[in-house]
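Q: Could you predict the 3D structure of VOC family protein?
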Amino acid sequence: MSKFEYIDNVFVKTKNPKKMLEFYSKTFDLPLVYSNSCVQRLQVGSSADRAMLAIVDENHLVGGQHSLLSFNVMNIEESYEYFMKQGIECDTHIRKFGPSMEYIYFEFRDPDGNINTVVQCPEITQGLR
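A: Sure. Here are the predicted structure tokens for VOC family protein:
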């Protein structure tokens, strides 16, 4: 498997994104660094740490489920092959998102059925971290 680099996101699913954003940003003094109609991302630690608390509007989710954690790796294809060979249940094939489709990911289930994400971000593959 491609080397695990860092936790990219911890996701919080909510019915009221505005209220959750206000709670976490004020309670922990976390700055808002990204926002769209589905997710707001708050920076945890320095920007070099890359850890984010992502507040997800559950009204945008299919089936009401969402990842709990996002693990960043250098090589998504290598990681996906590893998961498949290990017999780990993967909910998705490798997908892309972002303004230039630069974020590449797949989701998997842990032994308790929780959904988690493995992602390859351009910041790490291009040495921008």
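Q: Anything worth pointing out?
A: The mean pLDDT is 81.
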